[in-house]
Design brief:
Length: 133
């Protein structure tokens, strides 16, 4: 069901703002609080990170995000689960290499203890498909 304008939509957008700010500030305490224990990230090149690996990128300084915008977000609620699909635009470096990009991002949330927790992110590059050879 579409929850545009609902409390869930507002709550997810606020949580998304906290997440994006925490990524920009390498605030692993906040990221740890926002993500469920079983969190998984599927990166734009198909790699999968568990919560510890996801947080370690910031703890070690391997990932530095100078800008992160999550917009064009559509939130759908399914009982105690919410799925938010939006656009993720970042300026970042990973191990000193540019990691700038624009991605279609799917975030999955579950309601736990009266609030929402991030359980999964999946990023896919926003780019036209390559032309057949």
């Amino acid at each position: 069901m579409d929850s545009t304008g609902s409390d869930t939509h507002t709550e997810i957008l606020k949580l998304g703002e906290r997440w994006a700010e925490a990524e920009r500030n390498a605030d692993t305490d906040t990221l740890d609080d926002l993500a469920a224990a079983g969190f998984r990230l599927v990166g734009p090149f198909g790699f999968v990170l568990d919560k510890a690996q996801w947080l370690a990128r910031y703890r070690t300084g391997a990932l530095h995000t100078s800008s992160l915008i999550w917009d064009q977000v559509d939130v759908r609620e399914y009982g105690d689960t919410a799925v938010a699909i939006g656009r993720h635009t970042q300026q970042a470096t990973y191990q000193g290499q540019k990691a700038d990009g624009q991605f279609r991002a799917t975030h999955v949330f579950t309601r736990e203890g009266g609030g929402w927790m991030l359980v999964s992110q999946h990023l896919s590059p926003v780019a036209p498909p390559g032309r057949p050879g």
